[in-house]
Design a protein that fits this description.
The chain is 53% helix and 12% strand. It has 736 residues and is α+β, with helices and mostly antiparallel strands.
Length: 736
């Protein structure tokens, strides 16, 4: 059914009056209710998080009993700390390698390529050791994910200006103006207790997010004004935000300086930022979208442990294994208690005399102890008859049983945490085959693969937000200086200006990627295996596709597209994506089988003949160069044999006395040999260049003469030194 709308007959509905904006006091009341609700919603998560952190730090007093049951007062085995440390090392073992590309980019777009390279240089400079300590931020966020259950960070734009005196061309007078001094896209770590957010089932539903900071009175006055600084509440800073530290009663956990608790609230719906403090009566400040990011949020989606679609609140991994951790600790406590009870002690018949007790009390050695009334002592069975020892064997058996149970519980724990013995670097059975160990390692990596991907996603999203800040706020001068555009290749320098325009364009989106394997601990054996597998798969496909391309004219582009699709599943295939695209384009342009060949023009025939002549001359010259190269290799082998003979002779001479030359001659001759090899390698490289035979022969003769001359001088010099050492030794032995 068709529906026709007559625009002229459409009635105009009177619009409602605009909604009245809230006052600062009303905004304060609004956010106080939201923050109180958030605190109630996250109270259990934060309490458990404090206990988990305390367990990791091996804290056994205070309020740690829920996570660390140390009521028995015995020894514990903190496997939790070991597991977290191992996981941290596996997830973050290398500096992240950032890859920036334009979405839907053309492989032939050199401007986009240069822009992506400049983006990559700016971002990578902050990750390298010479930049800001981003590594510490990422490790802290990762640790928060593994312990309490959530790790996050944020981006921030910082700009600094300076005053300069310039000449006003209109008034011809000097005036002071504010100019840009420095700008930076910063990344700040956010403690897991300094984050709060509105109710939502998923990250997309979260209406607002807030970050807490602690500011002194002078900082509050500088940021919000002296009037607000006088009326705001100040208290001692703690990790939890309360005056009493929620994890320990230790007063050292408090900051000695009283500070104001300031919350920076980002509301997604209105795209506004509010600054709120519980101790104030009104909102401290309110700004429209400061950064202008596409997603508004200044932080990426956090790394969240065990999220559900019921409510966006993390649950620490430790909570799923805490019972096993406590059981292992209980077993360890029993083992320690029983071990302390094992002593060499026994009881004896006092009527048999003190001889039995003296053996242990006096600690006699190689001596005989007299026994009174030997007949009665012998009638009672001697030592065995008068002494009964403490049952040590039974206790040792109990300890062995407890240790076996503890080992079984530990294996159950590793099954829950997904860490195999190979991943932990533990001892493996010597009879276990290599294939079995490989399977165990692979199965163990499955449990940690999700963490690897989530961590790499978080780091890439964080750098993506930073790239967006650079695109929207950086000046051209800052982009040039921070990307070191002056050190780009010469053929890329003319494209810098156009690349900066593309970087600052609002219509262009950029993709920032960090591969999980680049940030995790490198497994070189696995990397080599994956690359070999990739090369083998590509080789097999090329062999199969070559026959199909010959049999079916015009099928080469389709076969290459199929190869690109099939090989995309392998790790590292993205590195060849551009080259494959270029090859596919060339294949589409090239004439396919089945097409009628065109008769070449006279000009093309002449060029083909000239090309054939040139190829013949090149082949002849190449033959001459091969002869020279063969001679160079023969000379090098002769020199090497000569050097080895000299070294052997000096070794034989040096064995006459350890003080003779001490192997200095040998070291020097080896250095000469290495220099000769480098020189001859340089000769070979020179001959492989595009030069004439005469020029190659001349270079080879000059280099050979220089090497032979240097060798002869050094050899004669150290022969003389060796002879002087022999004379010295002979004179020393004669007493001269």
């Amino acid at each position: 059914m068709d529906i026709n709308i007559d625009i002229e007959e459409t009635t105009v509905v009177e619009m409602a009056a605009p909604k009245k904006e809230k006052s600062p006091a009303q905004w304060h009341q609004h956010w106080q209710k939201e923050m109180d609700a958030c605190e109630k919603r996250l109270r259990r998560y934060k309490k458990q998080g404090v206990q988990v952190v305390g367990r990791y730090l091996d804290e056994r007093q205070g309020n740690m009993q829920g996570a660390y049951d140390d009521s028995r007062g015995g020894a514990t085995l903190n496997l939790f700390h070991k597991n977290i440390s191992t996981t941290m090392a596996m997830l973050y073992g290398n500096t992240p390698q950032i890859d920036v590309s334009r979405e839907h980019s053309d492989p032939d777009d050199d401007v986009a390529r240069v822009a992506a390279l400049m983006f990559q240089r700016i971002l990578q400079s902050d990750i390298e050791p010479s930049g800001e300590d981003l590594s510490t931020i990422l490790k802290a966020s990762l640790q928060d994910r593994l312990l309490p259950g959530m790790g996050t960070a944020r981006v921030r734009y910082h700009m600094k200006t300076k005053t300069e005196r310039v000449l006003n061309p209109q008034t011809m007078e000097m005036e002071e103006i504010e100019v840009l001094d420095h700008e930076k896209a910063c990344i700040d770590y956010i403690h897991w207790q300094d984050v709060c957010w509105g109710w939502g089932r998923t990250w997309k539903e979260i209406p607002w997010g807030a970050f807490r900071s602690w500011m002194t009175k002078s900082e509050v006055s500088e940021r919000f004004g002296a009037d607000i600084a006088k009326d705001i509440e100040y208290k001692h800073q703690t990790s939890s935000g309360d005056d009493k530290f929620s994890g320990s009663s230790d007063s050292e956990q408090k900051d000695n300086i009283q500070k104001a608790e300031i919350w920076e609230i980002w509301e997604k719906k209105n795209k506004k930022v509010y600054w709120y403090s519980q101790g104030a009566d009104l909102i401290l400040d309110m700004q429209d979208d400061p950064l202008g990011l596409v997603g508004f949020w200044p932080m990426p989606r956090p790394m969240l442990a065990n999220p559900t679609t019921t409510m966006f609140v993390p649950k620490a991994d430790f909570l799923f294994a805490q019972d096993l951790y406590n059981e292992i600790d209980e077993l360890q406590s029993r083992i320690a208690t029983i071990t302390r009870a094992i002593k060499v002690v026994g009881v004896y018949d006092k009527s048999a005399g003190d001889s039995a007790g003296r053996m242990l009390k006096e600690g006699v050695e190689n001596d005989l102890i007299p026994v009174d009334n030997w007949a009665m002592f012998a009638e009672k069975g001697g030592l065995q008859g008068v002494i009964q020892w403490f049952p040590v064997q039974e206790i040792v058996g109990v300890i062995q049983t407890l240790q076996a149970v503890q080992q079984a519980k530990t294996e159950q724990l590793y099954e829950i945490t997904g860490m195999s013995d190979i991943m932990r670097g533990g001892n493996t059975d010597q009879y276990t085959s290599g294939g079995t160990q490989a399977i165990k390692a692979k199965m163990g990596s499955i449990g940690i693969q999700a963490l690897q991907e989530d961590f790499a996603r978080f780091a890439a999203d964080l750098e993506g937000l930073k790239a967006e800040v650079i695109s929207k706020h950086y000046s051209k001068e800052s982009i040039v200086s921070q990307s070191n555009a002056g050190f780009l290749p010469e053929f890329d320098k003319p494209l810098v200006s156009a690349a900066i325009d593309l970087m600052q364009s609002k219509e262009v989106n950029w993709r920032v990627n960090i591969r999980p394997e680049s940030i995790a601990m490198i497994d070189y054996a696995q990397m080599q295996s994956e690359r070999s597998e990739y090369i083998m798969a590509m080789s097999q496909y090329i062999q199969a596709a070559s026959g199909a391309a010959q049999a079916i004219p015009g099928s080469l582009p389709i076969l290459m597209e199929l190869m690109k699709w099939s090989l995309a599943a392998y790790k590292g295939a993205e590195y060849l994506e551009g080259a494959l695209d270029q090859a596919i384009d060339e294949a589409k342009k090239a004439p396919q089988g089945g097409e009628e060949p065109k008769e070449p023009s006279p000009e093309q025939l002449r060029m083909q003949i000239e090309q054939m002549k040139l190829q013949g001359a090149q082949q002849k010259q190449q033959g001459e160069l091969v002869k020279i190269q063969t001679k160079a290799q023969a000379d090098m082998q002769t020199h090497q044999a000569k050097i080895q003979g000299e070294i052997y002779k000096m070794q034989v001479d040096a064995e006459k006395d350890q003080t003779i030359a001490e192997s200095q001659s040998q070291i020097r001759l080896m250095e000469i040999a290495r220099e000769m090899e480098l020189s001859l390698a340089e000769i070979q490289a020179t001959m492989n260049a595009n030069i004439t035979v005469e020029e190659a022969q001349a270079r080879f003769d000059i280099a050979s003469q220089e090497v032979n001359h240097e060798y002869d001088i050094e050899s004669e010099r150290y022969k003389h030194d060796l002879k002087m050492d022999e004379i010295y030794v002979q004179n020393r032995n004669k007493g001269i």
